[in-house]
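ok so heres the complex, two chains, lmk if somethin looks off
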Amino acid sequence: MKVFTKLSIAIAFTAVTATAVTAADMADEMTIVSWGGAYSNSQMKAYHEPYMEKTGIKIINDESSNEAVAKLRAMDEAGNVTWDLVDVVASDAIRLCDEGLAAEIDHDEVLAAAPDGTPASEDFGELIVSDCFIPQIVYSTAFGYRTDMVGDKAPTDVCAIFDTKTWPGKRSLEKRPINNMEWALLCDGVAKEDVYDVLATEEGQEQALAKLGTIKDDVIWWSAGADTPQLLADGEVVMGSTYNGRLFSVIEEQNQPVAMLWDAQVFDLDGWIVPAGLSDERKARVMDYLKFATDTQRLADQAKYISYGPARKSSAPLVGKHAELGIDMAPHMPTDPNNAKNTFLYNYEFWADYRDDIDAKFQAWLAQ
Amino acid sequence: MQKLRALLLISPLLAFILITFIAPIADMLFRSVENKIVEETLPHTVALIDSGGDIETVVPGEKVFSALYVDMFVAAEKKEHTRLGTRLNYEESGISSLFRKSGRRVDRLDVEVYREQFENIDPSWGEIATWQSLADNSDASDMLPRAMWAYNAWRDYLIADGDNPDEEELEDFIYVALYDDLIALEDASEAGDLIQRSANAVPDFETVNFKEAFIGFDKDWGAEDVWKTIRTYSPPYTEGYFLNAIDLQKEFEGYSVRPENERIYGVLFMRTLFMSLVITGCAILLGYPIAWLMSNRPMREANLLMIMVLLPFWTSLLVRTSAWKVMLQQQGVINDTLVWLNIVDEAGRLVLINNQFGTIVAMTHILLPFMVLPLYSVMRTIPETYTRAAKSLGATNWTAFWRVYFPLSVPGIGAGSILVFILSIGYYITPEIVGGTTGTFISNRIAYHISSSLNWGLAAALGTILLAVVLLLYWVYDRIVGIDNVKLGG
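and the predicted structre for the whole thing:
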């Protein structure tokens, strides 16, 4: 019995000290969730390191953005949110806001104004697609193609993906309806401005799937952003869609014979959300970080490490050269006028409504 | 007494399993029927629908819309309307944005006229003290259920925002609820003077047409489809998720089969079972000879084989799966070798991955140790003398193996098969990476609904069905093979 008492005291003591230690750590620690890989690295260099140096707060990187929505929901149900700041794409931010899992932000109050005094809400402009969302970068889903596999006819039009006669070989497309359905309709003669009206109808959805059906046997469907770069590098596919930053790294950093096909690229946004229900103390710490990490200079700095466009208008002129390669980054930005001649903007409202329905049809079509 | 002590000894383990395993699973499975969100977010609308009042047509009349206004106002303040929108959007596209839009608009709808008229009857309607005394009085609360609910909800959300309701002005929507209560009040004679006077006055009130207002927000509020969905999914428990999971759908008029271009789960369940069987079969075919060699060769060789079986087992699952990608892809090792040997030409490179074949190869490889190890541990215990005795009695090598050795090794096959089959039925990451479109399993859809579409109810229903299928197969297996015939060793 004595042993048991001693043991339980020891356990209780350990437990108490452990909580004390965590509590002390919490005071100068912050868990920031992001995507991992080159992207987290660019944030580390551009935001985290300067901030840690300036304030002494320790930033812990968690690479869970992929399942952030599900995990936040689970944390919220368990009543124990351990994340302080989460990097998500805009559509996820809208859903988190809808679910009440992300806190609403007063952009002008929390974020720094541009150097010329323009308030943050104007500097970010319409990129603030949700009250909970703080935009960070503009990225795009575009195509890359093997320059050595297309002969002397380099594709300039997105409809090249449907033209297996001129450009035989496999293509890689993302295993979800978003973007693919739009491209299919666009290449099936639907005018750009009508795409979503058509896609809202049964017939339009069938039309898009029928168009995709013409190349179904030639498609490798990807689910991770790294798939297409690998497939292109191995020569498995002649062209494929992925995030433009991934293609940049295949082309410029790995020097593969790959080139960009910017036509009909789809813009999307990525940024921060603050989980709902943080304690005042944690919230204040996050807000301080946000003010620093989303100011004009910091956003422009990030573009030194990855080819995604800063979300602030005032950052664009400050975009310089790649930190290691020393090449000009501006021409590699999806927003560069030469690249942005024909673009789509991810239609958040449409996909929030039709995602479940069209996805069911898309997956059933895939499984046939 | 002894039993009790034994129970006490295992109680920590029991508690551990209950808390960390059984309870979370039960909670997850429960989500497959739970549907309280509709009732909780729109309590008065649902109550009116359930009682059948004012809904002779599919699109209800003004009374329901008036209740909807009060419900929606509170839900929007608590930011719960969008959650409900997401929930109902699983069943009917477009409800998500309908709710989001309406939540913004109800806040701006001008209903001040109700408040003004009540204050004309008696200015005390504008005072918090009047309302608080009504809320504290249970008779009045019974008489004015909706108004009291609205008043309390208003206090709650103000407090949640960090405001003090006693210093704020009452919101207009509370008076709409009050009006609805008083109109519905049949007998006001028991009530206090204030309520009696108000009840007598309300029939002459100038009102807002909420039905028109909502249809003005979005014409979908006048659409039958939206109301059919709300009414179909208003009960607190629903079989809708389970129906969805077997390619049926619950509609206002009853059950129906999903249109052909949306049917997917039946195909996936059948495919999952079929491929798991094939993988188990392949594992037996490949694993049996290895296990036999291991148990019949000298120790040194057997150990070497054992290491070769275990080495991949210790390698990360992702690494092994990706290695298969490198091996099997069209520009991969196998195709390159075949082209080099002139067995196939450049244009005829084989498609070995992103289909069922790739999934079967990769998963057989990954699950092989689960077959080899039980087989080996059973085979080691079969005395060599048995086969020798058979041979000395005149049996050929084959007869000795087939009639003597093999039956003794069956318990090992049984154990290995159960392990491999049950592991493969829930496999997720390998089919996702190498499965393409024809090699994916039901678990890939479950994962999608958990992490992407957030339709946890449907994911839970699919998981429940999968669990039931496994238990059923286990039962069948027990009936045919007998679970006593399964050995993991010795």
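quick notes: Strands of chain A lie at 29-33, 58-62, 85-89, 134-146, 171-174, 219-222, 239-243, 258-273, 309-310, 343-345. thats all i got rn
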